[in-house]
Design a protein that fits this description.
By secondary structure, this protein is an alpha+beta fold. The protein has a single domain, classed as Nucleoside Triphosphate Pyrophosphohydrolase (Alpha-Beta Complex), CATH 3.90.79.10. The protein contains 3 helices and 5 strands; from the N terminus they run ββαβββαα. A 3-stranded antiparallel beta sheet has the order 2-1-5, with no helix packed on it. The two termini are about 15 Å apart. The model has no long low-confidence stretch (mean pLDDT about 95).
């Protein structure tokens, strides 16, 4: 899990993620983002879920619109160390996740897929 150091979800715990670069596959983007944020190498096992998050300002205008594609990955190597836009990062037992301050969209994905 990473503690977000930037908006959106500043200060909340989440899973590593970010934008897909031009010409990059989703699998390549996930592996890159996990490495850039946590310093660990992973292998993607499967697609978990896809959803979107639309965040509006106080006037109802769209401030952020994210398409979120979550994958299940397997740790390969590296020591967990926060990098880039992760304020902190650490391994978390799945039993701990529900008690953490996580974005509602992540909570819904984990609940819908029987993870929490």
């Amino acid at each position: 899990m990473v503690k977000r150091a930037q908006e959106p979800s500043l200060g909340k715990w989440s899973i590593p993620g970010g934008g897909v670069e031009l010409g990059e596959t989703l699998y390549e983007a996930v592996k890159r983002e996990v490495f850039e944020e946590c310093s660990v190498t992973i292998e993607i096992e499967r697609l978990l879920d896809a959803t979107e998050n639309i965040i509006r300002d106080k006037n109802g205008r769209v401030k952020f619109h994210f398409v979120l594609v979550d994958f299940v990955g397997r740790y390969i190597n590296g020591e967990v160390l926060a990098q880039s836009d992760a304020g902190e990062c650490r391994w978390v037992d799945l039993k701990e996740v529900e008690g953490m301050d996580i974005p509602l969209t992540l909570h819904d994905v984990l609940k819908r897929n029987g993870i929490i």
